[in-house]
Request: fold
Amino acid sequence: GAGVSQSPSNKVTEKGKDVELRCDPISGHTALYWYRQSLGQGLEFLIYFQGNSAPDKSGLPSDRFSAERTGGSVSTLTIQRTQQEDSAVYLCASSSGPARSYEQYFGPGTRLTVT
Amino acid sequence: AQSVSQHNHHVILSEAASLELGCNYSYGGTVNLFWYVQYPGQHLQLLLKYFSGDPLVKGIKGFEAEFIKSKFSFNLRKPSVQWSDTAEYFCAVNADVGGGADGLTFGKGTHLIIQP
Reply:
């Protein structure tokens, strides 16, 4: 079946602009995760959704970052007033349940470049 | 908070050599352990996972890993590597702390190059 999809695959934006990144999880997966992959920091956990609620927002780097999930499916990660240090690959993953019991399936990522 | 250490950042091997990539984590409670692989130009894929039971777990493509609780380790092994194993390998941990803390903590990754 279809895997996790993300759009856009690449995004170049000017410093100070807002960006929205989209994730479509595997159909039926209740849990959804956002991660960031950058050269300096490796893979960092950002936020986790169970259904439409986000019990764990501890990984969001600043209040410029927010995420929502609607209908228990699609999720959007929004970065306001982008900074150059936001440049990274943003990965989305989904699973059938919580990470302590179920494996996560990753999407191809969105490469964000802030100029 | 848990952390994951991968000691080998770059490894270069010849085909048919044996492979062992180290992974250590810091968390004293129950953990779930994973190895993911990222082939060039592709997205992260799960190689293998440990949740409970037999500490020696077998994954795809001939990989295996052993969970040694006393050493806080989950090293990845393959007896004979192939050129197609060239990739970035990530060890990851999820600590069973409850309360919705369900993200994975990843190591920095090991870049493996297999020379023909």
The mean pLDDT of chain B is 91. The interface with chain A takes residues 32, 34, 36, 42-46, 49, 51, 90, 92, 94, 96, 99-109 of chain B (CB under 8 Å). The first strand of chain B starts at residue 3 and ends at 5. Chain B has no helices and twelve strands.
